[in-house]
């Protein structure tokens, strides 16, 4: 019997980590994920694929660790011996990165460096090739220097988060060129889903719509409604991560839909879907403004289309509808069992 391919995922409990795990398990990988110790359960996005470790055929394994803890990362690498590593772990909230810049940079920038150093040593010592995916972000384009943004567009980061992502991007490229690592940067534009964190604007809106419909919320407080984002569907985007690591040569790719929409357009589609007018519910709260804003993002993913054969499968309107529908359903189910969702 041939050995299963082993993949290691940092950030397995996040939106992308959970979809990527499902995707790799479907492809018959043995999946290993790093989770943070927390005083309450933090595995809700992967509970449905969790497997009892006593089962001899188990193919999903969880390891305690943290991107700020290089010793543990090295130990996990030695134990797991993965052939693919997906670095998705991050303090990923842009607004929060202004409040906690040091922690954000330690996780996002130094975390990537710790992984790259561990892989470099492991590969040198064992001769086993480890393919590395770095979760880069359209936030790196920041104050955009070109419209639409592509792989060659200069970066102009506007937050501690995006400065840290730029560092991780260049280190990934640098390790590829210096040590011949198979290391790829994905430059992913915003991607959303029913599993999106509740404090990102899309999910904050769709969750509020569901709660307003259910009579559990009266107002929705938001910040800047004029910024524009290129929003895609997270399931499509994790497929692109895997595709990058299956190529003959490592490279960097923009993953996007090539459409841009404002927060107001998102509100319009989400509220209209349940026959409500968003202007009746949305209030401004300056606490959600950022010291520096990214006004416009729109990606050109021609390279990914041509070289990977990747393209998005869900339209903007379909994405908004599926998120609203999912939040309405989740709220109905939680009310039925009285799970204390509120
Ligand atoms: P997410 O839902 O916020 O998940 C982040 C993951 O990182 C969670 O599993 C989290 O663990 C983990 N994490 C946080 N701090 C950590 C630390 N110090 N050590 C180890 N793990 C840590 O993010 P996502 O939306 O899935 O995004 C995945 C990656 O892609 C992130 O690197 C993000 O910056 C990047 N990205 C996202 C987008 C997007 O639109 N979603 C676009 C471009 C790039 P807990 O569950 O315990 O908090
Ligand atoms: O903000 C505006 C806010 O926090 C989008 C992360 O996954 O994508 C994400 O970063 C826009 C901004 O996402 C609220 O000012 C208004 O202009 O949903 P967001 P983001 O900052 O684009 C990138 C690609 C990543 O890499 C990140 O990890 O919406 N906005 N009012 C608001 N945003 C939030 N969160 N909350 C509000 O109340």
Task: Tell me what the structure shows.
The chain has a domain at 6-196 and 231-259 and 298-314: NAD(P)-binding Rossmann-like Domain (Rossmann fold), CATH 3.40.50. It is an alpha/beta fold. The chain has helices at 15-26, 70-80, 94-99, 101-126, 160-179, 201-213, 234-245, 263-272, 302-308, 316-337; strands at 6-10, 30-35, 60-64, 84-87, 131-137, 182-188, 191-192, 220-222, 228-229, 232-233, 252-255, 261-262, 282-284. It is built from ten helices and 13 strands. Helix 1 packs across helix 7, helix 6 runs parallel beside helix 8 (263-272) and helix 6 packs across helix 10 (316-337). Bound molecules: NADP nicotinamide-adenine-dinucleotide phosphate and ligand F7E.
What order do the helices and strands come in, and which of them pair?
Elements: E1 6-10, H1 15-26, E2 30-35, E3 60-64, H2 70-80, E4 84-87, H3 94-99, H4 101-126, E5 131-137, H5 160-179, E6 182-188, E7 191-192, H6 201-213, E8 220-222, E9 228-229, E10 232-233, H7 234-245, E11 252-255, E12 261-262, H8 263-272, E13 282-284, H9 302-308, H10 316-337
Parallel strand pairs: 1-2, 1-4, 2-3, 4-5, 5-6, 6-11, 7-10, 8-13
Antiparallel strand pairs: 9-12
Ligand F7E is lined by residues 92, 94-95, 137-139, 189-190, 199-202, 204, 222-224, 227, 229, 263, 288, 290, 293.
